[in-house]
């Protein structure tokens, strides 16, 4: 990840403005809750905050970029920065106990130690209760930043002790511009990625780096063919998709399915906008002829139901205990919506 200071972060101006106002006021909350979908700048903003709080000579409430602390944060070797990520899908109590031990010591080089808890909603019940005790009486000089997609997945007592800062999905214009300026993606591909990335720059980049164009075509063709195949073949398709997902590394399980559901949502969304006469808003422009033909014989209510089935499936992925069963139900119900 390329480090960015507050002024270099795009699309989250409201969150940045609030954080800078807090720094200027001099009363720094000990815990923040950064909410929003992955890939919109929560981690980038957390690092920029760590730099701003520890900079020797801050300029307009952000790091100067030249002092030792700023350079260490930028290079990823700042000693007062702790990062906690799920261990095999969950943040466990041993990880929180280790965090609590570290927080007992004074920061090494700067006035603040910043601890970032990624996917905080994955804390086990034991870990969440142990973390709650830390939130009640945090040692001085510590800032805790919890990153979550949906705050309701956290204990209410944790939420109430944090300063909540929402991060909005990025606009298509911002994603397209960032893709073109920060990567070697051409304008046509950048526009296509921006259209179907659901407001997430991270998802757009992941899609591009993972043979996106070929996978996208296969995903859409598979969905187009779904209504015309027997239910038994639809079940085989569901099981094949889960087998492929299970081959991924432990920390990436579900990511391919999440992106697949996003592609399918973009297709249904295009069918919906055609049904309501908003053809200029199509995402999958290269499939426009097929979209217009397909939308003609499908009901609007069924398309909306199918879209929300996929949206809910994305939310359910992380907690799914039986991925095969989940996919079977999703594919069969989606098939009904498209017949």
Strand line-up in the sheet with most strands: 2-3-4-1-5
**What is the rounded distance between the termini?**
44 Å
- Pick out the low-confidence regions: none
Tell me roughly what share of residues is in helical segments: 40-55%
How many separate helices? Answer: 15
Shape verdict = globular
Structural class: alpha/beta
CATH superfamily of the largest domain: P-loop containing nucleotide triphosphate hydrolases
User: What's the Cα radius of gyration?
Assistant: 22 Å
What's the CATH topology label of the largest domain?
A: Rossmann fold
Mean pLDDT comes to 91
Number of domains: 2
Q: What fraction strand? A: 5-15%
CATH architecture term of the largest domain? 3-Layer(aba) Sandwich
Please provide the count of β strands.
Answer: 5
CATH class of the largest domain: Alpha Beta
Secondary-structure topology with pairs:
Elements: H1 13-25, E1 31-35, H2 42-54, H3 68-75, E2 81-84, H4 93-103, E3 113-117, H5 125-136, E4 142-148, H6 156-159, E5 163-166, H7 172-182, H8 187-196, H9 201-209, H10 212-225, H11 231-246, H12 255-275, H13 288-296, H14 300-316, H15 323-338
Parallel strand pairs: 1-4, 1-5, 2-3, 3-4
Can you walk through the features of this model?
The chain is an alpha/beta fold. It has 2 domains: 6-166, 3-Layer(aba) Sandwich (Rossmann fold), CATH 3.40.50.300; 210-338, Zinc Finger, Delta Prime, domain 3 (Up-down Bundle), CATH 1.20.272. 54% of the residues lie in helices and 7% in strands. The chain contains 15 helices and 5 strands. α4 (93-103) links the parallel β2 (81-84) and β3. α2 runs antiparallel to α3, α8 packs across α9 and α10 crosses α12. The two termini are 44 Å apart. 36% of the residues are buried. The model has no long low-confidence stretch (mean pLDDT 91).
């Amino acid at each position: 990840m390329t480090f960015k200071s507050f002024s270099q972060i795009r699309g989250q101006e409201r969150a940045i403005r609030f954080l800078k106002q807090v720094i200027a006021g001099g009363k720094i909350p000990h815990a923040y809750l950064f909410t929003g979908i992955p890939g919109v700048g929560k981690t980038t903003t957390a690092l920029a905050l760590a730099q701003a709080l520890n900079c020797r000579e801050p300029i307009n409430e952000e790091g100067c970029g030249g002092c030792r602390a700023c350079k260490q944060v930028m290079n990823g070797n700042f000693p007062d920065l702790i990062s906690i990520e799920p261990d095999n899908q969950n943040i466990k109590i041993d990880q929180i106990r280790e965090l609590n031990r570290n927080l007992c010591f004074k920061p090494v080089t700067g006035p603040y130690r910043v601890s970032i808890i990624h996917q905080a909603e994955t804390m086990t019940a034991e870990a969440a209760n142990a973390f709650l005790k830390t939130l009640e009486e945090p040692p001085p000089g510590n800032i805790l930043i919890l990153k979550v997609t949906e705050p309701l997945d956290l204990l209410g007592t944790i939420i109430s002790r944090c300063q909540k800062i929402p991060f909005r999905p990025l606009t298509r214009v911002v994603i397209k511009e960032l893709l073109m300026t920060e990567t070697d993606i051409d304008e046509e591909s950048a526009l296509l990625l921006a259209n179907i990335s659901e407001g997430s720059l991270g998802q757009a980049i992941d899609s591009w780096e993972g043979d996106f164009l070929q996978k996208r075509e296969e995903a859409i063709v598979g969905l187009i063919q779904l209504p015309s195949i027997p239910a038994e073949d639809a079940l085989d398709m569901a099981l094949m998709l889960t087998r492929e997902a299970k081959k991924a590394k432990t920390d990436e399980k579900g990511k391919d399915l999440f992106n697949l559901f996003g592609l399918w949502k973009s297709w249904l969304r295009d069918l919906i906008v055609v049904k309501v006469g908003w053809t200029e808003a199509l995402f999958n422009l290269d499939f426009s002829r097929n979209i217009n033909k397909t939308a003609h014989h499908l009901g609007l209510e069924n398309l909306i139901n199918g879209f929300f089935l996929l949206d809910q499936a994305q939310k359910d992925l992380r907690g799914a205990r039986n991925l095969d069963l989940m996919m079977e139900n999703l594919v069969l119900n989606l098939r009904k919506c498209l017949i």
